[in-house]
Amino acid sequence: MEVVILPSSKEIAGLAADAIEALIRRKPTAVLGLATGSSPLPIYDELARRHAEDGLSFAQAHGFALDEYVGLPAGHHESYREVIRREFTNRVDIAAGNVHGPDGSAKDVLAACQGYEDDIKAAGGVDLQILGVGTDGHIGFNEPGSSFASRTRIKTLLEQTRRDNARFFDSIDQVPHHVVTQGLGTIMDARHVLLVATGAHKAQAVRDFVEGPVAAICAASVLQFHPHATVLLDEAAASALQ
Ligand code: F6R
């Protein structure tokens, strides 16, 4: 695991965008794994800027979202499909049909999860997976205790995660209890994972997954086993590292 500490989210976004740009220029059909939440937003802003100003094209690229809430109506402002569209894919030239997300409203959730795994495989697998990390160490919505071998499936959010995400909703009561998320095994199949964490509220989770034991209680610690994992931190998020 390569850990890079940078002064601010602006530099983090620049470095992450450099990696994504290099990939897209080398392999225009690259498959990007797209996270939501606050952490990747500066990266999406920077990629949208490079598209508008430098002609960086995503026309042949593919995108796969990490996760989705269960129970939000289609088109809900906070559904991750909508967030990814609004924050990233609508701002670049990626083909709408090339952007995929787990189906949080499928009648047959098991079949939909298997179908999502099949779609990722059919696209050739994820080349670069963008990740944030939860204050409880989750990646995707793989909460503490998730199996390292897990694949896309339905999960229950912990209260802490619902509280953390309540800022996107009018009240915590509106935060769904369930999600469909890529599993840790799915995430580990990505050829490069690039995790971004900023702010002092992430310091303990960062210490746990970077320096702690690899253990299911801290899902992100599985990344210690990934052959190409890059962790981009600001100084506050890195402040508990030894
Ligand atoms: C989002 C996701 C989550 C977030 C994590 C951190 O698709 O899968 O793991 O990355 O909850 O969220 P932020 O970045 O909002 O602190």
UniProtKB/TrEMBL annotation:
Pathway: Amino-sugar metabolism; N-acetylneuraminate degradation; D-fructose 6-phosphate from N-acetylneuraminate: step 5/5. SUPFAM superfamilies: NagB/RpiA/CoA transferase-like (SSF100950). GO terms for biological process: carbohydrate metabolic process; glucosamine catabolic process; N-acetylglucosamine catabolic process; N-acetylneuraminate catabolic process. It holds the Pfam family Glucosamine_iso. GO terms for molecular function: glucosamine-6-phosphate deaminase activity; identical protein binding. Its EC number is 3.5.99.6. Keywords: Allosteric enzyme, Carbohydrate metabolism, Hydrolase. It is an enzyme of class 3 (hydrolase). The active site is at residues 67, 136, 138, 143. It catalyses: alpha-D-glucosamine 6-phosphate + H2O = beta-D-fructose 6-phosphate + NH4(+). InterPro entries: Glc/Gal-6P_isomerase, Glucosamine6P_isomerase, Glucosamine6P_isomerase_CS, NagB/RpiA_transferase-like. PROSITE patterns: GLC_GALNAC_ISOMERASE. Residues 11-214 form the Glucosamine/galactosamine-6-phosphate isomerase domain. CDD domains: GlcN6P_deaminase. The record marks 146, 153, 155-156 as: Part of the allosteric site. GO terms for cellular component: cytoplasm. Allosterically activated by N-acetylglucosamine 6-phosphate (GlcNAc6P). Catalyzes the reversible isomerization-deamination of glucosamine 6-phosphate (GlcN6P) to form fructose 6-phosphate (Fru6P) and ammonium ion. Belongs to the glucosamine/galactosamine-6-phosphate isomerase family. NagB subfamily. This is Glucosamine-6-phosphate deaminase.
